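Reminder to self: tokens first, then the designed residues, so the page reads top to bottom the way the pipeline ran.
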């Protein structure tokens, strides 16, 4: 009964994540829908808005990074059953993003505006490409393990997960972190950059650079010299640019 519950819970967490992911795309793109968007959100004096927005970015960054560390997972699984540990992480990460978007405060001062139709179209194409790279990258590694579904399914089937293997499919042959690279493209590719959009893009970009270093330290612990060699050969976010 508990194993069936684990799978149902994992499915619910995944559905919340996917809805949040789609909303995040619309949020960054200022798409016309009911609800807050990066440039159409709560209002406050600029200093207050900046302070609140930075706190929201920090909340997401701390939750996302701290809970992903092996030491935290070891302690966390004394409370949360191992088959749904990842799903719970995904649920809380989604909650942190939802809070960020719901309480975001707009800063609408223009940083740049591209009025040329061709230039704007190129930037919108890059925006879409970035999100496509993000989603594709999750499937290239293991989408269902990344978001907790595989762990719950294996628990239901009483099946043990295979030992981790360092693979470099498609994008991973050219950059070590294509998922993060996709986010960088999506966050910065816009024909109308405002101060608020810039603050969010810069804040999340800074977080990702920190997260990559923490994640690579864990990957070296898992894969040892194999990952060190991979790191020397393949750029972090840009092909042929990065650690050697």
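Designed residues (244 positions):
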């Amino acid at each position: 009964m508990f194993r069936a519950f684990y799978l149902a819970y994992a499915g619910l967490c995944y559905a919340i994540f996917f809805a949040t992911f789609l909303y995040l795309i619309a949020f960054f793109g200022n798409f016309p829908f009911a609800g807050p968007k990066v440039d159409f959100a709560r209002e406050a004096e600029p200093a207050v808005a900046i302070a609140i927005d930075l706190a929201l970015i920090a909340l997401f960054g701390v939750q996302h990074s701290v809970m992903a560390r092996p030491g935290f997972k070891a302690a966390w699984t004394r409370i949360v059953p191992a088959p749904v540990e990842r799903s719970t992480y995904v649920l809380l990460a989604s909650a942190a993003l939802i809070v960020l978007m719901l309480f975001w405060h707009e800063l609408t001062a223009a940083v740049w505006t591209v009025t040329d139709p061709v230039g704007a179209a190129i930037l919108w194409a890059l925006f879409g490409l970035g999100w496509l790279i993000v989603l594709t990258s999750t499937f290239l590694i293991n989408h269902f393990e990344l978001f907790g579904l595989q762990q719950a399914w294996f628990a239901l089937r009483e099946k043990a997960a295979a030992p981790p293997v360092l693979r470099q499919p498609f994008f991973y042959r050219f950059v070590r972190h294509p998922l993060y690279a996709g986010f960088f493209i999506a966050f910065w590719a816009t024909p109308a950059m405002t101060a608020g959009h810039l603050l969010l893009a810069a804040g999340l970009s800074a977080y990702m650079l920190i997260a990559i270093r923490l994640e690579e330290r864990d990957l070296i612990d898992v894969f040892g010299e194999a990952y060190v060699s991979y790191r020397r050969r393949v750029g972090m976010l840009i092909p042929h640019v990065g650690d050697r």
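Residues 184 and 205 are 7 Å apart (CA to CA).
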